[in-house]
Design brief:
Elements: H1 14-26, H2 31-38, H3 43-58, H4 63-87, H5 95-99, H6 106-122, H7 124-136, E1 144-148, H8 154-162, E2 167-172, H9 175-188, E3 195-199, E4 212-218, H10 227-237, E5 238-250, H11 264-273, E6 276-284, H12 291-296, E7 301-309
Helix pairs in contact: 1-4, 4-6, 6-7, 6-9
């Protein structure tokens, strides 16, 4: 892993300060978490978050709305964690159980995506995943980049800004996510490079064999009923030597998580069975716990992988 940035001692950027103030006002119990989390964010990352909030404000959103989005994620996740610790399973196990209330519900999906974008900076585990993505992304490799489930669009936009790929394609089952990703790219100027965003089911897409030089899939496997089908599709469409980046989570309940991974070895075995091999990995245990402690207590663990075709 790369070295962590020094704690920020300067005043927070204005939009970040306003958002943090509103979050703490609405949920005073979140103050300590927020204080500790902000100490892990670099000045450059805070500037990125401030710019993202500016983008949201220019879209007509408010600080109060963004705080509500963020706290919705916090509250929903806490409720699902309580359920998981009691029942040792996720609340739902099929796509049909969550599709209408999440992916095809424009109001909730907007809340969800704006909130998740903010957690990319304010939750240390999510920030570590983003840094791992950013730092392992090839800077000079050219060709075709594909992202499955770009969600709020921040990884997709980062790839457009920091890599030399010639063309970028994003596929997402949610029209809300596609619209949010497009707006983000157009606002920050990433649209200077050719890109294509499609609202489609990845497994139903007519994609050619060995067509992509990079395939990225962040936080998707836990949302689907058949993760091997997605991994086999990736192995099929990725070129030999392609950069393949995948993240998911273990024992990490959320309102739309339906596939439960319990141990990292499950993923390693699944990758191998689907024609993929681990090159690099990040296993991010629960805050304040070791990996062994987190797995033993079935606490949330985030994982990220750079893969290659076997």
């Amino acid at each position: 892993m790369t070295a962590q940035p020094a704690a920020v001692t300067a005043p927070l950027p204005p939009n970040v300060a306003a958002l943090v103030s509103k979050v703490v006002e609405d949920n005073p119990m979140h103050r300590n978490f927020m204080t500790n989390a902000l100490a892990n964010v670099s000045a450059a990352e805070l500037k990125h978050l401030d710019d993202y909030i500016t983008f949201c404000l220019q879209k007509g959103l408010t600080i109060a709305y963004l705080a509500d989005c963020y706290l919705t994620i916090v509250g929903d996740t806490l409720r699902e964690q309580i359920y998981f610790q009691k029942h040792k399973k996720y609340r739902y196990s099929t796509f049909a159980e969550v599709a209408s209330s999440v992916y095809f519900n424009e109001e909730y999906m907007s809340f969800y995506m704006y909130g998740l974008a903010i957690t990319s900076y304010l939750w240390p585990n999510h920030l570590d995943l983003f840094r791992f993505f950013r730092d392992t992304l090839p800077a000079n490799q050219q060709g075709e980049y594909l992202e499955i489930g770009p969600g709020h669009g921040y990884f997709f936009m980062t790839a457009m800004e920091r890599s030399a790929y010639n063309h970028f394609t994003g596929i997402d089952i949610s029209e809300t996510s596609v619209a949010m990703t497009r707006a983000l790219i157009e606002h920050f100027g990433g649209g200077k490079k050719p890109f294509d965003l499609r609202c489609m089911d990845f497994l139903q897409c007519d994609l050619k064999d060995s067509a992509y030089d990079a395939v990225v899939m962040g936080e998707v496997l836990e949302h689907v009923e058949d993760p091997p089908a997605f991994l086999k599709q990736i192995a099929r469409i990725a070129k030999p030597g392609a950069h393949i980046f995948v993240t998911t989570c273990l024992n990490a309940p959320a309102v739309d998580h339906i596939y439960l991974f319990r141990q990292p070895q499950e993923l390693a075995d699944m990758f191998e069975a689907c024609g993929l091999r681990i090159k690099q990995q990040l296993i991010r245990p629960y805050e304040g716990k070791t990996e062994a402690e987190s797995l033993a207590a079935q606490l949330p663990v985030n994982v990220a992988y750079v893969l290659e075709k076997a």
